[in-house]
Amino acid sequence: MRTQQPGTAALTALFALASLSLGACAPSVPTGDAAFEGGSPDGSSSDAVATESGAAVFGQRVVEFSPGEGAGFGQSRMPDIVLGRPEGAGDMRGGTHVVSLGRGGRICLEMAAPIVDREGADFIVFENGFIVAGSPEVFVELGEVSVSEDGARFATFACDTRAPYRGCAGVNPVYASSTNTLDPTDPRYAGGDAFDLATVGVGRARIVCVRDLSTREPTPPSSGFDLDAIASVHADR
Ligand SMILES: [Ca+2]
Ligand SMILES: [Ca+2]
Fold first, then answer.
1. How far, in Å, from the CA of 178 to the mean position of ligand 2?
2. CA of 37 relative to ligand 1 center, distance in Å
3. Which of 50, 68, 188, 190 could form a disulfide with 103 if both were Cys (CB 3.0 to 4.6 A apart)?
4. Which pTM value belongs to this model?
5. Alpha-helix runs per DSSP H in the chain
6. 97 Cβ contact list (under 8 Å, min separation 6)
7. What pLDDT, in 10s, does the model give residues 135-165?
8. What is d(CA 32, CA 36) in angstroms, rounded to the nearest whole number?
9. Which ligand is nearest to the CA of 121?
10. Ligand 2 centroid to 236 CA: how many Å?
């Protein structure tokens, strides 16, 4: 929750500044039709992104944060850093709009509206994996994902820690950000790792948790899985 409440005049000034800076910056998007088909035509901001039903689609509250060894990065910007939309940095570098979980750390977000199981993937977890220069490999920091409707009973997606890391978060680079028009709720364009509630036999989930599964020696303060954001593909009111 934000603690500062700027007055109307200040908000107007801020909005004007934001509009100016947006107008002055060339959007950085991958080339090709795919980059635009899924985008929001008006380039709307994070808080405006919603499903057809009007439901908000991002995390709205951190309900648990248990950092592990070597955490620290991003903690001064908690909880806002993991709420709202992803700020992906693309294939070649890891985004810094993240909080590091540290080795064995865990975080749970309450979504703004329940995720519901419909056809295909239902939500996306965004980390900050990137392609290692000079190699086809992505620098992965794996996370195990679990979901719950009531915060008491959880269903966990089985994460295979061997490539290609099926069922894990922290595998794919993130493309959607506020600097482009890629739809952060469309798994075809957003990047990140998409999950289908049907995989774990769940019809509806309000809470999504990620637990770090990294095995490297800690590299403080950015050890382990780095959470950027979580977005619903299918959200209910
Ligand atoms: Ca589904
Ligand atoms: Ca990472």
1. 20
2. 22
3. 68
4. 0.80
5. 8-24, 34-37
6. 81, 86, 87, 128, 177, 228, 229
7. 989 999 999 999 999 999 999 999 999 999 9
8. 8
9. 1
10. 30
